[in-house]
Amino acid sequence: MNYSSNYALQVVNLTKIYGRGSIGVKELSFNVKQGEIYGLIGPNGSGKTTTLRIIATLLKPTSGEVLVYGVNVVENPFKVRQLINYLPEEAGAYRDLTGLDFIKFMLSLRYNGRELEKAIEEAVEISDLGDNLKKPVRTYSKGMKRILALSVVLASKPKLMILDEPTSGLDVEKSIYIRELIRKYNREYGVTVLLSSHNMLEVERLCDRVGMLYKGKLIAEGTIEELKSKTGGRDLEEVFIKLKTRGG
């Protein structure tokens, strides 16, 4: 595949077949432009997490090719990991570490010296966990663990941020806060964002373009307005239902 400097991510004919012939994704192709927020949406089992895990070098594809800023995720996974940061849907944290020690440890894998100090300060501010950062992570609620992990991903300012259900487990107020932060880091620091979400309202408010997955295939792609115009849907939920009924 030829690399285009316009794209942070290029996915071409990506296929993942699991044991017993179960299809994760099939001949999936899409591009994410540098500096945009791109959303992958679809029901459970549509291939969203499979796709994100392949891009994040955690899962090898059966066939196809993925380039992150021109770097092949299979041939050079170490270099790809230097360009990205990935937040899985069920992001864990070291249970016996305090929240602050978790932040320090995770960011020390990417920074050192004054850069590390600044990143730690930034993550602490983003997390807004206050004195809870002194407590072991095992005492945290799901929402607290989520925002702790997100604070590390944001403070690391990767070239490509990969977020699987970024506001899962968060209340409305924290969800709005995180969406605003994602947009801020995208606009102010030029971080490209690839995210998946079941929250259609979140995707509408946050994403520049959207790819709709169904049974491992891309059935539509475009801006929110383009997809509404194409289908006559009033929102993304209606758009998806109409496309699914038509078969793409």
From TrEMBL:
InterPro entries: AAA+_ATPase, ABC_transporter-like_ATP-bd, P-loop_NTPase. One of its GO terms (molecular function) is ATP hydrolysis activity. It comes from the Archaea. Keywords: ATP-binding, Nucleotide-binding. The keyword Nucleotide-binding applies. Residues 9-240 form the ABC transporter domain. PANTHER family: ABC TRANSPORTER, ATP-BINDING PROTEIN. This is ABC transporter related protein.
